[in-house]
Amino acid sequence: MPTDQRPLAIFVMGPTASGKTALACALARRFRVGLISVDSALVYRGLDIGSAKPDAATLAEFPHRLIDIRDPADPYSAAQFRDDALREMQAMLETGVTPLLVGGTGLYFRALQGGLSNLPAADESVRARVAAAASSDGWPALHARLRDLDPAAAQRIRPGDTQRIQRALEVIELTGRPLTEQLGRAPGRFGWRVLKLALVPADRAALHARIAARVDAMITAGLLDEVAALRRRGDLHVDLPAMRAVGYRQAWQHLELRSPVVEFRDRAVFATRQLAKRQMTWLRAELDARVLEPFDPALESSAVAALGAFLNRPAGCSAAGVASQM
Fold first, then answer.
1. pLDDT value, residue 173
2. Which of 101, 226, 235, 294 has the least C-beta neighbours within 10 A?
3. Which residue ranges of the chain lie beneath pLDDT 70?
4. Is 193 exposed, middle or buried (0-12, 13-18, 19+ CB in 10 A)?
5. Are 282 and 276 in contact (CB under 8 A)?
6. How far apart are the C-alpha atoms of 183 and 312, rounded to whole Å?
7. CA 210 from chain center: how many Å?
8. Beta bridge partners of 102
9. 119-127, long-range: CB < 8 A, 24+ apart
């Protein structure tokens, strides 16, 4: 039987507040792995508290690549992530380090492993026109426009997902064709053998409690001051991808409307719970992932056993086969 000679990589995936960073750091203590962040908010400098970015002490002990690589005024795409991640993975391979990619942005994981369609690059003039239409007509009207132009895309994209509505309309204007007709994965097999560890809580109430505690801790740590400082820059606005991140959008609107802090807190908790729900829906589609209970006291030992078996198994042995033997 032919052996699989592809280099190895590990994905640690899970919903927000499930303990992905803590587990990745624990694994980095035991194995020769290098950490790469897979998070669409952590790429931005200055988005520290609301993104739950690892603190300076953690990053000093466990450096994460692809953190703080963009200014919040500069959009960052899944295609850019894929290029950056593959470059960092190759650099680690050349030094004998196994890449461990950790985060909860499913689009980035899928873009990395499956490739992306050959869609046009962002066009600032078209993007500005869509944003202007959103300001004058509202995002529900733009979602209705998308429903007329590409019903399948409108069904898939939530009315509140302004970033994806904007991108879909942008692609339609640039190409003259519905986005749905142009979607598809790049051909060919991913160049790495991957062990996927998915942190999926069986008790959603426990995750909700952790999310609420995290939002409260962020408020105490100064999240609103952080967003106020970003607003004072003058070159940022709420429709930028960085400011659409969960927590930041709600904080921006709170500061703009001067709403009660308790109202902001409840909206931030609700938005974070909705994000976690979407992340778990995505994870359920990752059929080749090894599911781990994030609130199990034996989580670390289970992950260590899975990773040890993966790194030491023969190239011809499948990940599923190893998992079934544990």
1. 85
2. 235
3. 1-2, 183-188, 313-326
4. middle
5. no
6. 37
7. 19
8. 12, 37
9. 119/171, 119/175, 119/179, 119/182, 120/171, 120/174, 120/175, 122/75, 122/77, 122/167, 122/170, 123/170, 123/174, 126/170, 126/173, 126/174, 127/166, 127/170
d(CA 88, CA 43): 14
The C-alpha atoms of residue 172 and residue 155 are separated, in whole angstroms, by 16
The position carrying tokens 């959009």 is: 75
* CA-wise closest residue to 57 among 24, 35, 25, 87: 25
**Rounded to an integer, what is the distance from CA 255 to the centroid of its chain?**
26
3-state secondary structure 61-128: HCCEECCCCECCCCCCCHHHHHHHHHHHHHHHHHCCCEEEEEECCHHHHHHHHHCCCCCCCCCHHHHH
- Interstrand relation of 8-13 and 193-199 (parallel, antiparallel or unpaired): parallel
> Is the separation of the CB atoms in 102 and 35 below 8 Å?
yes
Counts for the chain of helices (H) and strands (E), in that order = 15, 6
Distance in angstroms (rounded) separating the CA atoms of residues 63 and 61: 6
The reported pLDDT for the residue numbered 314 is 55
Instruction: Calculate ∠ Cα 285-20-249, nearest 5°.
Output: 85
Looking up tokens 């909860």 gives 104
Kindly state the DSSP code that residue 27 receives in the 8-state scheme.
H
pLDDT for 217 equals 98
Structural Rg of the chain based on CA atoms: 20
Cα 36 from Cα 15, distance rounded (Å): 17
Cα dihedral 194/246/221/236 (nearest 10): 110
Going along the chain from its start, the domains and CATH numbers come out as: 8-117+192-325 (3.40.50.300), 124-182 (1.10.20.140)
